[in-house]
Amino acid sequence: SRIPRIVILGAGYGGIVTALRLQKQLNYNEADVTLVNKHDYHYITTHLHMPAAGTDKPDNARVNITKLIDEFKIDFVKSTAVQIRTEDKKIVLEEGTLSYDYLVVGLGGEPETFGIPGLKEYALNIRSINSVRYIREHIEYQFAKYKREPSCTDLLTFIVGGAGFTGIEFVGELADRIPELCKEFDVDPSLVKIYNIEAAPTALPGFDPELVEYAMNVLKNKGVTFKIATAIKECTPEGVVLATGEEIKSATVIWTGGIRGNHMLEEAGFETMRGRIKVDDYLRAPGHDNIYVLGDCSIVMSPEGRPYPPTAQISMQQAEVCSHNLVSQIRGSELKKFEFKPKGTVASLGRGEAIGIVGSRKIKGGVASVMKKIIDLRYLYIIGGIPLVLKKGRF
Ligand code: FAD
Ligand code: NAD
Question: Is 283 among the domain residues?
């Protein structure tokens, strides 16, 4: 009989770890594995707030895929998938098509704009290497432009929409970067404003209130102004309009208001919630025993019946079970149920500062900052061993 074909879409946290596990677990000629990704590099999404603000180089947040996988075991195709066709088990790529027997969807998330007018057109997103390079250049350009138009102080106002973990980590970096930019461009620091605007009654809704307060104080001391319980209603080329009717003028709006699943899933006819598929116990799309869905494209319910937040942490744990189940399906042995084991959450607040919960312990300040670095280094070790830790690690 023919060798089964496994296609993995997306080389993010879910996709790359699935590929690495399959290349280890599969025997010679047991399956053909093809990994498809838009770029020839994997990006370390959890670092993107740094190159976005300009506190780190974009190159430090990416790794060539062929440096991570064994090309004798996994075929890598650099291409953008445009359509998933479950009826004839094909993937349409920008150039050509691929057939699969088993599919792994790890395409990641897309910005959720909730239909708020102007956000798609005028706001920037922290999503990829290309998008963060754009943000970094855009911010620098506002400083340069201000020197030509010194009456336009709005050029020095930066708005971050959404105070979830992405928004909070980004304003932490941006606040660290501003003094450097002010020095470089000879700009009076008191003219620069950073707003973090959050619709919910608190920043980091759902997180430990004591740690949220600590984080807000650290960020306020660095110059961030919070507007909490204030929704962004509209984004325009001149800035944002708030639900209160107030307008804030700015040439820079970074939208960190949430993410949804990849649009291709809806288009393929899967049942989705905010673009994400609620997977079965084995991480498969309901009704499709050969399609696994991971990471930001998937929804896994907690025992309390709430969806777990989409994180790199859950994506990687899913990849372990997904690869196990693919090998089991091919060998006709038993599948494993996925059970998320939350390890905690640590978020950076810029240089030397962070907050987090590890196990049941709350941590903050320098200790948390070191912990965040360890978590990030551990990931590099998992995917690329010591050489990658030394090459891309941020110590
Ligand atoms: P992703 O990692 O998003 O990867 C998707 C891949 O698919 C990408 O390589 C992309 O290029 C590719 N792709 C997309 N579309 C196509 C297409 N059409 N064709 C081919 N390829 C395509 N989570 C944590 O657990 N801890 C953290 O500390 C943390 N920090 C974060 C910090 C920031 C600034 C951000 C933005 C997120 C952070 N997260 C963190 C969340 C975490 O990054 C995501 O949950 C995680 O990246 C999801 O992994 P994924 O495998 O679903 O997809
Ligand atoms: P999120 O959905 O967690 O947060 C978005 C925030 O934007 C929410 O607080 C929401 O209330 C707010 N918002 C929505 N609409 C708004 C509006 N109109 N006006 C103002 N505010 C509005 O999204 P995220 O922060 O991008 O995080 C995505 C996922 O990645 C989460 O699961 C998160 O846990 C994870 N993440 C983790 C880390 C970490 O562990 N260090 C860092 C970044 C992201």
Answer: yes
What confidence tens digit (pLDDT) does each residue in 178-220 have?
999 999 999 999 999 999 999 999 999 999 999 999 999 999 9
Global pTM reads 0.97
- Ligand of minimum distance to the alpha carbon of 112: 2
Q: Within 13 Å of residue 171, how many CA atoms lie on the same side as its CB?
A: 33
Give the CA radius of gyration of the chain.
22
Listed residue (183, 33, 181) closest to 104, CA to CA: 33
- Domain with 12 in it: 5-38+79-111+259-342
Pocket probe mutation, ligand 2, options 311, 373, 376, max atoms within 8 Å of Cβ:
311
Kindly provide the ipTM of the predicted complex, given to two decimals.
0.98
Distance 364 CA to ligand 1 centre (A): 25
Q: At what angle do helices 365-392 and 13-25 cross, to 10 degrees?
A: 50
pLDDT in tens, 92-118: 999 999 999 999 999 999 999 999 999
Distance 215 CA to ligand 1 centre (A): 24
> Is 217 a member of any domain?
yes
